[in-house]
TrEMBL record:
Gene Ontology, cellular component aspect: cytosol; mitochondrion; ornithine carbamoyltransferase inhibitor complex
Domain Aspartate/ornithine carbamoyltransferase Asp/Orn-binding: residue ranges: 168-320
Pathway linked to the protein: Amino-acid biosynthesis; L-arginine biosynthesis; L-arginine from L-ornithine and carbamoyl phosphate: step 1/3
First-tier enzyme category under EC: transferase
UniProt keyword Cell inner membrane present: no
Protein name: ornithine carbamoyltransferase
Family membership noted in the UniProt record: Belongs to the aspartate/ornithine carbamoyltransferase superfamily. OTCase family.
GO molecular-function term, one example from the UniProt record: ornithine carbamoyltransferase activity
Amino acid sequence: PAVSGVPHLLTDNDLSPKQLSDIIQSACLFKHQAKVLGQPSGAPLAGKTMALMFSKRSTRTRVATETAIAYLGGHAMFLGSQDIQLGVNESLLDTSKVVSSMVDGIMARVGAHSEIETLAKYSTVPIINALSDLYHPTQILADLMTLHELYTPSGSDPHTTAPTSTLKNLRLAWVGDGNNILHSLMLQLPKVGMHITMATPKGYEPNAEILKQAQKNAQVHGTDLEVYHDPKDALRNADIIVTDTWISMGQEEEKKQRIASFAGYQLTTDLIEQSGANADWKFLHCLPRKQEEVTDDVFYSPRSHVFQEAENRKWTILACINQLLVKKGF
Ligand code: CP
Ligand code: NVA
């Protein structure tokens, strides 16, 4: 039977604006305690195990999660697609019941989003979405933490400054595929008062149902959400510019078609500046990055904060795990 009452982080709408803000703040505090003060965590996860059930490859999410769990004194058990029967040779229902009976939490990277929903339905322990074809909620936590750090006024510390005060009214532009990262951005940004504009090629728009939810979020929070096809329209007045690969994991066979369809969507300094982005524009990318979506002159420029963003995967995932497994819920 389905298990109810267990808190999970499956989509970005599982987080209220306050929970989102608290996680960003808590992540900044963990980073400060670990890196500046050199404090140990007190090992609140001692004796506890978290299973990392990943059916796709990962660098950042895996390293972030394993190191976060180690910092909290717990054990991370990596279960890749070659290791366990994740949807192969055994039902997800049975796998979820068995694994959750022995561990304290699960971080799951899956193909179809319905797979993580099934895992969550039968799990007796919290599950965090480590990426599905529709959402990547923990990625956006790192993006927002990075922006919070970048927009915290000099003389103040991010861990004592409210993220709502630094992020409100910033305008983020997405140029590229209507994929899982865009979906998660669209849902989360309104909750911190940020505006989003997007340009995707025809046929590569975001999922219509998720767009509707995002429009609702934007309406509730009084933020702008603008949908375009022409990159120049999305880039106008942008403070932060973001893209991602044009070929997500699982779409490898569409590569040729996609490269052709995305012609004109490569981010270059010229395109961004000719489109009227704000003078102080900044660049983010979840990584892994390919040259086709963004040129080196943007990606490796001082305006790019992609490596800070990648490191912040650790601190935000740490804050999430602490919230779900130590504080027992959001
Ligand atoms: N950004 C991100 O999720 O990277 P990985 O796929 O390497 O985990
Ligand atoms: N859109 C990409 C994100 C990788 C972190 C993918 O799903 O492969």
